[in-house]
Design a protein that fits this description.
276 residues, alpha/beta, 2-enoyl-CoA Hydratase, Chain A, domain 1, 2 domains, six-stranded mixed beta sheet, three-stranded mixed beta sheet, 44% helix
């Protein structure tokens, strides 16, 4: 890891902090690569049961760095692989991840562990995509969300039209994406962009407590399969969702994690999950 990104582990929870506070944690080539490496590490490192992504200073992530976008992307000197193209390293980290989830701004939604965005300030552009890829978005009164693509001649990246429509509903997503206006913390909470709102001083500790509880109590196998069901649900009929649930339940009953979960419940102890 470079000093552009900090890594910390607490109670089986990996905390990844984007560390360019002077640029509101805007992503240049070096920070982008550090994010990729951190996500792979969190997905594969033994003992890590949940991931929190946050930003240093008073911003979560200001999206792509304007200087990098101007000099490298517009100027034609950008890295050979675009950040929205599948990266084979993510396939090694999570073999079940489909191609559209194997990018640094979408992989958090395909990881074998639960993921939380601790949105401590503005989540803009690619930073919004990174937050939307997480299972949970916890914020504070300083949180805000901005998709400025229409104001810079760009289009909604990384499937944001889908993820925002899923979280907010199509009307609210249309409002946000077409207008490019900023959504403040209260509106974000009311519209489903954020899961919970905490005082700024308590945000990270609340995220750690929540993530640590999930890492201890929740089966990694169950997390993976429930997430798959949630992702499939928007395009399924109820009959299709019911059939998927029936097949998943039959497989779960035969799993090592289910046997361990029932044993731990009967013996009144914490389960020791294998993810199998």
């Amino acid at each position: 890891m470079t000093n552009l990104l900090d890594w910390e582990t607490r109670d089986a929870v990996a905390i990844v902090t984007l560390n360019r506070p002077e640029r509101r944690n805007a992503v240049n080539a070096e920070l982008g690569e550090a994010i990729t490496q951190a996500l792979i590490r969190a997905a594969t490192e033994p003992g890590v049961g949940a991931l929190i992504i946050t930003g240093a200073g008073d911003g979560f992530c200001a999206g792509g760095d304007a200087e990098y976008l101007g000099d490298e992307v517009v100027g034609g000197r950008a890295q050979s692989r675009s950040p929205d193209e599948p990266d084979p390293r993510f396939l090694d980290a999570a073999p079940e991840a489909p191609p559209h989830m194997r990018t640094r701004y979408t992989f958090a939604g395909a990881m074998p562990i639960p993921t939380i965005a601790a949105v401590n300030g503005a989540a803009v552009g690619a930073g919004l995509s990174l937050a939307m890829s997480c299972d949970f978005r916890f914020g504070c009164p300083n949180s805000s969300f901005l998709a400025p693509f229409s104001r810079i001649g760009m289009t909604a990246e990384f499937g944001l039209a889908w993820t925002l429509s899923k979280a907010m509903g199509p009307g609210a997503a249309r409002d946000m994406l077409l207008s490019g206006r900023r959504i403040d913390a209260d509106e974000a909470l009311n519209r489903g962009l954020m899961t919970r709102l905490f005082p700024a001083a308590d945000l990270l500790e609340e995220c750690v407590a929540f993530a640590s509880d999930m890492a201890r109590r929740c089966s990694p196998r169950s997390i993976r399969r429930i997430r798959a069901a949630l992702d499939a649900a928007p395009t399924q009929t109820f009959a299709e969702a019911f059939e998927m649930a029936r097949l998943e339940s039959r497989a779960a009953i035969r799993s090592a994690d289910f046997r361990e979960g029932i044993a731990a419940l009967r013996e009144k102890r914490q389960p020791i999950w294998t993810g199998q």
